Input
Amino acid sequence: MSGPSAEWDAALAEGRFLLQRPVGGSGAVFPPRAFAPGTGAELEWFEASGLGTVYSATWIQRKPPEPPYNVVLVDLAEGARMMGCVEGVTPETLHIGMAVKARIVAEETPMIVFDPVEQADG
Amino acid sequence: MGDMFPRGRVSVAGASTFGVGEMPGHSTIEMAGKAVQLALADAAINLSEVDGLFIALPDDLFAGLSLAQYLGLHPRFTDNNRAGGASFMSHLVTACMMLDAGYLDCAVIAYGANQRSSGGKLSTPARPDRWDAPYNPMYPLSFYALAAARHMHQYGTTREELASVAVAARLWANTNPEAFAKGPLTIEDVIASRLISSPIRARDCCLVTDGAAALVLTRTDRAKDGPQPLVPVLGAAAATWYNSVTQADDITVTAAAESGPRAMAMAGLTPGQIDTVQLYDAFTINTILFLEDLGFCAKGEGGKFVASGAISPGGSLAVNTNGGGLSCCHPGMYGMFAMVEAVRQMRGTAANQIAGAKTGLAHGNGGTLSAQATVIFGNAETV
Output
């Protein structure tokens, strides 16, 4: 039987972005645990909406002509925070508070990236 | 219960630095060993009397064993606690408890690194964890950049305010013969320096130097008879909240908000009663975060506080009086150097001595703003 990290990896490879929460409870736990941090409560998996908000962002500079790339922290709608990157943005357009949605990139090792979400009001 | 601390019952009997700046041709254990020799000479204590060794080295996971071998000792206890740059303040907590309990009679805390001579880049065995690593953050720089960006967003902290931390550090360094980086540095220089991981620029970053340092600790009744002015340990607390700062509830609040108040409660002091403050300034944002979290200014006010000139020479609060990691030295892990400067201030022998200073705080930071440890030293009048 695999541990929670391997279970998360396997789901991601199938195109599913999973989070955990206490059984019958609310909130979200990430990175995956064998039990709820701080309480030890039993956890269950659920599928994340993928929606989130940029909590902080940095642009890492590279030797020109290589463009800088961003690393962000995303507050997921369900409650957990994770590191990520936002695609299709520039230092001028990426901002803290930006609404984003997760997308799974199927590379050799699948990973989650984020895209900006068009805001209804803006 | 918890947080029982032997206030004033353990003291610094000896202190040293060695090879601060550039010391080519030395291994890390040679650097640390030399610092131990100098600290013992400073305390007039024989090597054979040392029975506890506390050390972390950048390149040796078994450094406690290596130091015992290098010194030719069979210590009763070795402690290789690795909480990054806060390791040494954590070592001091353990050493004080063991000395006061009578388990140990003479403890040495040591560090040595040759980061400048061995390549000129920060060398650390630490890496981003598997959840952060796919996004290729610079370790540890980008993690501090994320904290700085959020602090600017949340409180309106400005680029100029961050830069003023580096300028203040340089002003202190300019009158410290031991400091590695000297010369004029303006806010404009900092802001014009190379962008690395926004908003952090080259002059927001600590130095990469060589350097070693050591402290010798004994019970105060013995240290009183030693050759040096008495420097008792009044309080010491370590706080660990996570490893990756990604997991912070609020990335603008560090565990210093816990370690500081706990250490001050042990010492029976409030922030207004601390005369000298040595903070682990790996990046300019650190100084702002720790001034806030330790209670020297309100949360969110750190930028304005540093930009007012409060922490520059002649300001209202003596912060990083040696020039700090930004301009004095930063050999990979800075914690020991903050403590040695605090001790020098208590002895009255610092290069930039603060007249009448009776209390000195040294604060260590480890990981990516993850582990924090605060030590408060006093002088003979405080016990």
In short: The two ends of chain A are 47 Å apart (CA to CA). The helical segments of chain A are 4-13.
